[in-house]
Amino acid sequence: MTSYLIPILLILIFAVAIAKKVDVFSEFISGAADNLKVSFEILPTLVALVLSIGMLRASGVIDFISELAAPLMDTIGFPSECLPLALIRPVSGSGATAVYENILNFNSPDSFAGRVASVMIGSTETTFYTIAVYFGATKIKNTKHTLGCSLTGDFIAIAGSVILVKLFWGTC
Amino acid sequence: MMKWIFSFFVIISAVFSIFLGNTEQFTNSILNEGVNAVELSFYLLGGMCVWGGIMNVADKAGITYYLSLLFRPIAKIIFKGIDLNGKAFKAISMNITANLLGLGNAATPFGLEAMKALEEEDKTTDTASRNMIIFTVLNTASLTIIPSTAASLRLKHNAANPLDILPLTLINSVVTAVVAISFASLICRLQEKKEKKGWK
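The joint structure predicted for all components is written out below.
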């Protein structure tokens, strides 16, 4: 289904553009050139961000916290298999995909943990990356309460994925 | 803000790598991650150029204008004082559309364009404006119609129905977005009140 999206989108845009006598080629080039500048501007921000997340992962602190908190999580009804995913999701997209794949290797995708992990990864975003890259494109130094609100959102989404799966399927 | 998060990540990682005996992996990560960042930026670079070009064609053809008409009713509630005919709002409309369709790689370039345009429109100095905060929070809430990563991995692991999680992800991200944005907007309002009192 989704594979039709891009072709249809492109047909629509280019057909309308030609009909309106837009100089399609040179407009494309000028748009590409604008964004070329932006991507060079965000490179230093990306280096700092990717470095700090890589260090965090390599230090083992995420696994350490997961192991420490697992008994507590089980008592409140949160599947402890999903805790590493909840912790890594806001900081790393590829990291989260790897952890998710790992969860599905040990749990059926239709099990309680498998479903919670699926809803969690499907309804959250790589918060730190998004904030750093978006503000990295601007001269903003003080992002005020952006991170606080986004992380509150992540927390709600993580709790929500457990609650919704329980409501829809029980604990399977 | 970023300086605290950055220092916190660096120090906590370094300390824990010593305590958990992962100093070797930690040192390797420092050497490797710089290269990874450049790789990532090259990966982004291609997408940025392609979608920046397409956006410009769509813009000149008037498509972004019609798209922004669609989002006007919601935008009036969420974004305060935004120029509904301005560059920022057009880029925001494209960003939301790309996100809804699950085209994450296309959404980022539009998002960055929107942020730069908002910076100009709101005449910010070094502090984020209300609309910049709301827009970024909206993007971290992951509003997508089809959760493609989750669906494709569920398919790979033989789920009975890979997309049966769809209503849940949709409800979950809508609730998250509404709560997070209301929260952000409430804090903005409280801060504005405080500033006004401060002036007196």
